[in-house]
């Protein structure tokens, strides 16, 4: 479970909320092809992400943790390994809650921290035009593939889920995101 090194926003301070049905479905799905210890690590990552995203909501009004769970579920459909699934569950914690790469490495190991950091780096750069941004994102994805293809697969699952849930956005934003 989480140790003393977890950031204050991620420490257990109250009873744990019930596990989301989608998260339980994820755990059941991965239990069909992963070792029990790996499934337990995924459950720990879920709780860590749940605490890190506490009080955060998607445009639809759903708790934010539903998005990382959906991304991890897409990856589980592809039979991805436990490190990729953990990184999917934690893919926004560095940007959205102040969790550090070091904290992730201490809790879940360096490979997971590297995956999450790689995903965060794909989001950080800003550009003058959308075309420049798309070209740079493609370049970054190719570089990331050279290091670890899982970064790209997690990012694709993230993008897929975001596209599947555009209905909560204003029509003009839906069109902009879909391009």
Task: Explain how this protein is built.
The chain has 179 residues and is mainly alpha-helical. It has a single domain, classed as Orthogonal Bundle (Hypothetical protein af1432), CATH 1.10.3210.10. The chain has helices spanning 21-30, 36-52, 66-77, 82-89, 93-97, 101-108, 110-124, 130-147, 149-164, 171-178. It starts with 20 loop residues before the first helix and ends with a helix. α6 (101-108) runs antiparallel to α7. Residues 1-9 have low confidence and may be disordered.
Quick summary:
The protein is mostly helical and 179 residues long.
Corresponding CATH architecture = Orthogonal Bundle
Coarse structural class: mainly alpha
- Biggest sheet, open or closed, and with what strands and sense? none
Q: CATH superfamily membership, which one?
A: Hypothetical protein af1432
**Number of E strands:** 0
* Termini gap: 41 Å
Secondary structure elements and their pairing?
Blueprint: H1 21-30, H2 36-52, H3 66-77, H4 82-89, H5 93-97, H6 101-108, H7 110-124, H8 130-147, H9 149-164, H10 171-178
Helix pairs in contact: 1-3, 2-4, 3-4, 3-9, 4-7, 4-9, 6-7, 7-9, 8-9
For this entry, give a set of tags:
single chain, 179 residues, mainly alpha, Hypothetical protein af1432, 65% helix, globular, disordered N terminus
């Amino acid at each position: 479970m989480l140790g003393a090194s977890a950031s204050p926003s991620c420490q257990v301070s109250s009873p744990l909320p019930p596990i989301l049905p989608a998260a339980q479905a994820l755990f059941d799905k991965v239990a069909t092809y992963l070792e029990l210890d790996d499934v337990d690590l995924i459950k720990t990552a879920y709780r860590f992400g749940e605490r890190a995203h506490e009080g955060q909501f998607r445009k639809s009004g759903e708790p934010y943790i539903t998005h990382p769970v959906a991304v991890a579920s897409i990856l589980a459909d592809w039979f991805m390994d436990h490190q990729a699934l953990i990184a999917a569950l934690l893919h926004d914690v560095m940007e959205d809650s102040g969790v550090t790469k070091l904290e992730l490495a201490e809790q879940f190991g360096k490979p997971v921290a590297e995956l999450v950091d790689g995903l965060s780096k794909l989001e950080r750069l800003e550009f003058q035009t959308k075309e420049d941004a798309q070209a740079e994102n493609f370049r970054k994805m190719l570089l990331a593939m050279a290091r670890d293809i899982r970064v790209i697969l997690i990012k694709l699952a993230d993008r897929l889920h975001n596209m599947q849930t555009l209905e909560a956005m204003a029509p003009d934003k839906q069109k902009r995101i879909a391009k």
